[in-house]
Backbone:
């Protein structure tokens, strides 16, 4: 069989503007036998893959779950809940922050509202949120469309990064990572982006910006009259039986139940626990969902199989936008499937989900860290092969 490339996600894997992820698999033809669904051996190989990933410098703990046609085929947990081997193991079915994987969920809700006629993809930001014009918070808001924000081609600068990095490298957050209590409104985050230069003409240049999705979350609330959390529950979490998934919106919201704690180096380089990461600094629509391997796999399965959106609207998210040179990498897999990768990161953790183009296979993983996300180099392809082609 010929090798098939694993398509990069629509947006970069990160709530921050860049994550160092190594996901290149070994070369050679994809000759693996079909995955043996639900066997003891498969469950063991997933666990072994998690144990290998936990040995990567900077990783405190890792959990993962693999699914085929909605059936669990393997889970794993390695490392520890807390730094220095403390706190015991992380439950393999624990909740974790999915960070920028939130964006695809928010985009799906936006497009479901479009399907119902409550919103248009070419509606203008200035018409939908007049306050951003009245307060001069977004330049050219009267030209920017919903479609452009969905596809990161609006030119609106990112509120997250202290200094923008067009090459996609590590950036420091524009806020105090260790402020766990100050509540910020989405409009406050949009305000932070105002002094920064636009990244291009509306609709012409792709440039990842959390501000796009902070604004889209606000638009959902304005159009429906309901909170973003309510609309996510109504359109996605409820129908897909994502019973352990929720949107965190304000401090001191935290992850419920036993879970892995993430850490971030302070000014002296000492890792500090950021498990209570300020929920309002996730920008709501940009990265505030907490989920599980089971639930996030259920969403990606339904999305890939076209059960959430009609084809013409789904293509708005899946057709590749223009990307600046150097930001797209070709990565190869040996399992015979064409995988997409969606992910996210912020201080304390990285979350990744691999899913096959036909929606039959998903592998969701969460890594808690003791370093900045860019300092953890993760080869996740081995884990995917352990789950889906263990004899390769």
Residues:
């Amino acid at each position: 069989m010929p090798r098939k490339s694993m398509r990069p996600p629509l947006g970069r894997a990160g709530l921050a503007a860049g994550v160092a992820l190594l996901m290149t698999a070994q070369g050679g033809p994809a000759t693996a036998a079909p995955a043996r669904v639900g066997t003891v051996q498969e469950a063991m190989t997933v666990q072994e893959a998690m144990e290998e990933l936990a040995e990567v410098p900077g990783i405190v703990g890792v959990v993962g779950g693999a699914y085929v046609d909605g059936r669990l085929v393997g889970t794993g947990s390695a490392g520890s809940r807390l730094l220095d081997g403390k706190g015991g193991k992380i439950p393999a079915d624990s909740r974790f922050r999915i960070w920028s994987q939130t964006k695809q969920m928010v985009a799906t809700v936006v497009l479901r509202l479009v399907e119902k006629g409550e919103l248009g993809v070419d509606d203008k930001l200035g018409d939908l949120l007049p306050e951003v014009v009245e307060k001069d918070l977004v330049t050219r808001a009267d030209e920017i469309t919903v479609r452009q924000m969905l596809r990161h081609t609006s030119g609106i600068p990112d509120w997250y990064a202290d200094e923008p990095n067009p090459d996609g490298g590590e950036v420091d957050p524009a806020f105090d990572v260790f402020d766990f209590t100050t509540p910020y409104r989405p409009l406050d985050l949009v305000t932070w982006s105002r002094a920064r230069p636009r990244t291009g003409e509306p609709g012409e240049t792709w440039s990842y910006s959390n501000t796009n999705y902070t604004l889209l979350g606000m638009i959902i609330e304005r159009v429906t009259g309901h909170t973003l959390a309510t609309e996510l529950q109504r359109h996605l979490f409820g129908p897909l039986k994502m019973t352990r998934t929720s949107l965190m919106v304000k401090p001191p919201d935290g992850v419920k139940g036993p879970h892995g704690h993430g850490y971030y180096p302070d000014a002296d380089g000492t890792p500090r626990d950021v498990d209570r990461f300020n929920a309002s600094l996730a920008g709501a629509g940009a990265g505030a969902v907490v989920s599980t391997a089971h639930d996030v796999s259920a969403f990606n399965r339904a999305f890939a199989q076209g059960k959430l959106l009609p084809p013409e609207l789904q293509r708005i998210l899946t057709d590749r936008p223009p990307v600046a040179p150097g930001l797209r990498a070709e990565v190869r897999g040996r399992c015979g499937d064409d995988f997409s990768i969606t992910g996210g990161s912020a201080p304390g953790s990285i979350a990744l989900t691999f899913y096959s183009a036909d929606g039959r296979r998903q592998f969701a993983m969460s890594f808690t860290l003791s370093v900045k996300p860019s300092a953890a180099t993760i080869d996740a392809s081995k884990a995917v092969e352990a789950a889906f082609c263990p004899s390769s």
User: Anything to note?
Assistant: Residues 1-41, 325-332 have pLDDT under 50 and may be disordered. Residues 101-115 form the longest helix (15 residues). The chain has one domain: 1-392.
